[in-house]
């Protein structure tokens, strides 16, 4: 059986925990064939980001044309875009209907605190998103209001969903919610809280990338958005749990995408 093809448009993480590398691992773990368009090259590891080199918009467009001209891509996710010019190139493809089931992960700040994107770049893509997946810091940057509680997550998700994306998931991995990890899904006239036990681990690098990549795989398989989001949350929870005892790097390590620790 031919696997479903999914595309990631994102930056490279030399440490392999996030970005293109994490996305391709998720695609493989969930049974999809992964293709990629690089937007930037980073020098990073579990301790942080040391350097970022954005690629020219023309190079991004050439990669897009090459992949889309040969593969029947069923879903697309974006991560780090780097510059508004690159975002314009990607948004042009989305506007032309070339990026089906678009999942926008608005990567603005790395787990280490290093700034990887700008709000203006993300805003160019949001009108074309089937699903957008900001964390609380990114949701605050996009709405211009604090997002530090579950109530504020609900307000941010609803505000962002009203402004472009069909659905918005504000992820709350860093919000204290009585031992739970709570995400807020808004869209289609409803708002849902997705809950899971909080996983106590330092291995959380690439959680947002992995979550959005898993959503894209499930959308490509035909799941409705609420099912795709819930399934992706379950996958990330398992991946976080599996990596709890790992000793990879000295900082925030990667997830267990393939169930190696089970």
TrEMBL record:
Keywords assigned by UniProt, alphabetized: ATP-binding, Kinase, Nucleotide-binding, Thiamine biosynthesis, Transferase
Pathway in which the depicted protein is active: Cofactor biosynthesis; thiamine diphosphate biosynthesis; 4-amino-2-methyl-5-diphosphomethylpyrimidine from 5-amino-1-(5-phospho-D-ribosyl)imidazole: step 3/3
Stretches assigned to the Pyridoxamine kinase/Phosphomethylpyrimidine kinase domain: 13-255
GO terms under biological process: thiamine biosynthetic process; thiamine diphosphate biosynthetic process
Entries under Pfam families matching the protein: Phos_pyr_kin (PF08543)
Catalytic activity field: 4-amino-5-hydroxymethyl-2-methylpyrimidine + ATP = 4-amino-2-methyl-5-(phosphooxymethyl)pyrimidine + ADP + H(+); 4-amino-2-methyl-5-(phosphooxymethyl)pyrimidine + ATP = 4-amino-2-methyl-5-(diphosphooxymethyl)pyrimidine + ADP
Gene Ontology molecular-function annotations: ATP binding; hydroxymethylpyrimidine kinase activity; phosphomethylpyrimidine kinase activity
One of the record's GO cellular component terms: cytosol
NCBIfam families: HMP-P_kinase
Cited function: Catalyzes the phosphorylation of hydroxymethylpyrimidine phosphate (HMP-P) to HMP-PP, and of HMP to HMP-P.
Name of the featured protein: Bifunctional hydroxymethylpyrimidine kinase/phosphomethylpyrimidine kinase
Lineage of the organism: Bacteria, Bacillati, Actinomycetota, Actinomycetes, Micromonosporales
